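Researcher: Next entry in the queue.
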Amino acid sequence: MASATSSRVVVTGLGALTPLGNSVDAFWEGLTTGASGIGPTTRFDASDFRCQIAGEIRDFDPTAYVDAKQARRLDRFSQYALAVAADALADAALQPKELSPDARDRIGVIFGTGIGGVDLFQEQAEVFREHGPRRLSPFFVPMMISNMAAGLIAMEHTLRGPNHCVISACATGNDAVADSLMLLRHGHADVMIAGGTEAAINELCVGGFGSMRALSSRNDAPTEASRPFDVDRDGFVPSEGAGALILETLEHAEARGARIYAEVAGFGKSNDAHHYAAPDPDGRGATLAMHGAVDDAGLARTDIDHINMHATSTPVGDIIESKAIEQAFGDHAHEISCSATKSMTGHLLGAAGAVESIATVLALHHGIVPPTINTETVEEGCTLNYTLGTAEERPLRAALANAFGFGGHNTTLAFTPAP
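Model: Structure for this entry, 419 residues:
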């Protein structure tokens, strides 16, 4: 039964698969030590491609989470989603199958992806071309469609609460958290699994992004290729992975004695209404999203101590986001410790927002701002504190996570320390 009152919402569990490692601990250690997860592409022969580097998931065994028969049927984006959801539930000390049916009715899933089952799509298109329609797999459509990750998580854990898939390009992960926040605030669930997943390191996607001249071609120095704000940046590095956050009402978390990482204090959403791929050069949409998150959280602009920037290492996007932060926060913008964690992970597309929300939560939880690596000469006009080179220890009162996507989608999340 939905409530007329608004509940506070907290983060109690985290799960991550990233190019920095296959756990939250490995991800956080990589971030705080300034490691890079980028290397030569191994998923396919990239020798004819402009971009021959990627942030790949390594040494991942899906059978640790599902049986081998099921794993063979799933696209990797769903494998990744199932893995991080299970890890996040374990981290939150929540085992749904041990709960009553009524309790499981109150646990939902919102899990998004930017592209979905594109590996399976590419594979089955080749089967169709060579052998015709009768050889297509009966699992092709159900395992390719983007909503299947959210559905499979619910099936695996018998969760009958609200369930849907968000698709808003690179804002997807943040939108999953924002939508979950709204449902929890207004009593539609007690617990939500929110996140994003992406497995798009294949010929079709890398080739498509490459044809847009969106990707870095610094193939001779993969670990240095993602370099936000640097005068020599030349595009983003494609990456894959997934992130999941367990969100609960504060009342529910306290009642079961849960460990709380942080509070999800607010969100802001907007659209650039400008171009299908390029951000609004005035940064108005990004500014609106940041203002919306701060206002929804009931914070003052001067309360924000940290921003995990979207900063993809593209020539246009980084400087526009920097200017938008200056517009949003005025003189206080230069007191904020910013991070561009894509300098270490590359761009996880539909999973980026979820993974970077985890980074923001951990920054608050530990009082450590992750660095921006590889930036040697900051472009004129990029005037913020980007925490260059080395992590910064700093108590944080509030933090934002920015995520902006093709189509002009902008979503900012506001986090505060655990109550």
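Model: The first helix runs from residue 24 to 32.
Researcher: Noted, moving on.
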